Amino acid sequence: MEDISWLQLTILILASFRLTHLIVFDEITSFLRDPFLTVTYEPDESGQEVRKIEIKGEGWRYWAGSLLSCHWCMGIWSSLLLVALHLWVPASFPLLLALAVAGAAAFIESRVYMG
């Protein structure tokens, strides 16, 4: 196994963050989640929109819905996939870099809008 530099590790961390968010939260990938769960948004007592998840089915379908609704769970699998790509498919670097840049931009944007 090759050593991973700090720069590569940083790219993998940011890429995993972005891929996880893409799969679990982004509208563009809702088609992946739709067979397994239903997401609705309801206001709480303070008027803030709260994400409500209803997982569909039983067995494997329920397991997949649980995975796709959990950023902690999906983060593990996203990380494993991206590390494997990095180690075994060097040509995947542009994809990893694009995800990392998007992840860093999302992190910065969330801090700017938080005040």
From TrEMBL:
It comes from the Bacteria. InterPro entries: Mycophage_PG1_Gp7. The keyword Transmembrane applies. The chain crosses the membrane at residues 6-25, 62-85, 91-108. Pfam families: DUF1360 (PF07098). Keywords: Membrane, Transmembrane, Transmembrane helix. This is Uncharacterized protein DUF1360.
